[in-house]
Amino acid sequence: MLLPAIKEREYRFTLALRIGLPIFALVLALVSHTLITNYSSLETSFYVESLLLLMISIYFIFYLLYKGFDVKIRDYSSGTFTREYLQNYLSKDLKLHKEYTLILIRIENLDNINQVYGIKYGDKALKETVKWIVKYLKKEKIENFPIGHFQGGDFILGLKKNKEKYTTILELLSLKAREFKVDDVEIKISTAITDTHYSHELDFLIEDLFHLQENTKKIISSKKEENIDPNQLEIMVIQAIKNKNLIINFQDVFENKKVVMRECFIKLKNDDGKIIYPKTYIKIVQKLGLRLTFDLMVLEESIKMLKDETTALALNISTASLRNDRVLRKTEEILKNVKARKIVFILSEQEYYSFTSRYNTIINSLKSMGALICIDKVGSYHSSFLYLRELDIDMIRYDTYYSNEMKLRNNKSIVDGFNLMAKEKKIKTWIKNLQDEESVTLAENANIDYIQGKYLAELKEIKE
């Protein structure tokens, strides 16, 4: 039996016991009073006391029943803990154990299963996957552990001791999962693992799990450049943005062997000079709601470097920031002081923004002030293809998937197709991360307008 089922039985039994206590007390009071009075006629006070106790008992019973429905322990679509109960359970466990591990197990194709086979079959996939996980771990002598349905196809389970004890077991589980099916339907499973060496706060541990999952889609040992407490890391990011402590590196972008623009890469640093890299600070900036402030700071600080520059500067900026009225007004104010064609905004987003007429209005407003607009991740994000079709942009940049010499060669027809679409709309094309002469030659032969990469130019620092 799963731990959630055991806990739910314990809770129901305790609730039933608590409900029965008032009735037991009423009977006890009646018997006691009768014995004390030696079976003589009952006094009026007894009836009053009994009536009051009965009313209180009835109220107490209904109150407990009502509260009992508020407490939901099991998620009935999967048979595991609900997210709320799991979080409470894990929080208590983390206080009791110095060494504790959290594991995230995800059914990657649950959405596809729901769409093709229906939600009922999706629920069956959840239940069967949990049974399979529990059965496998039981063979490894791991039992009675908390496991909960966190969201969608995501399950989180907690285990005592640090992750080194479970990493190999999880790797083997992932290997065996490649053969796992429910009624001949393949179930794609991926995992991530972290422990209290990262943090003792549940929220930070869960965030770390999802960060690892999204960035790797495979088992990872949560290795950090430095083991910095997440609370301290948030403070460092906030202070760096507040004090505008950043390092701006750039890399040249070429057209016909001439430098036409420079792409900026931003790192933050704290007061002690410790560097905070984008893969670390971006998720914190998003979480704390500082993306608008961050994007404006990057734009303003980058503009300061352009006083004596004639080459265009390319900046990655959040699409949400660009569509924010306050940021847009501030951006337009900044661009008034910049010479024409000196700023390129690089945009990308996975989710398609359907209000394209508003988007085009914003883009054209920026273009009227001398900015250029580039849509990134073409050939990877479906939204980028739709934006190429519908927005008044100036250039597109291919996803780094195509930067590899072999991938670029094998997908030449795809790149040629996007090039043709771009040329017909008078849009420039751009590819980055070219690492060798062969990939550069292929990009040039494919008539890609702008090329960029370590083979052509190293990163250089503008300001520290």
Task: Note down, in words, how this protein is organized.
This protein is α/β, with parallel strands linked by helices. It has 3 domains: 3-71; 75-216, Alpha-Beta Plaits (2-Layer Sandwich), CATH 3.30.70.270; 248-463, EAL domain (TIM Barrel, Alpha-Beta Barrel), CATH 3.20.20. Helices cover 50% and strands 20% of the residues. The protein is built from 17 helices and 18 strands. Strands 9, 10, 11, 12, 13, 14, 15, 16, 17 and 18 form a 10-stranded mixed beta sheet that branches. The protein has a 4-stranded antiparallel beta sheet with strand order 4-5-3-8, with helices on both faces. A two-stranded antiparallel ribbon has the order 1-2. A hairpin with a 2-residue loop joins strand 6 and strand 7 (185-186). Helix 1 (3-36) runs antiparallel to helix 2. The longest helix is centred in the first third of the chain and has 34 residues, at 3-36. The protein is elongated and about 105 Å long.
Low-confidence stretches: 218-225
Biggest sheet: strands, sense, closure?
A: 10 strands, mixed
Share of helical residues:
40-55%
Overall pLDDT score: 85
Principal-axes geometry comes out as: elongated
Briefly note the structural class of the backbone. Answer: alpha/beta
Question: What distance separates the N and C termini?
Answer: 59 Å
What count of domains describes the coordinates? 3
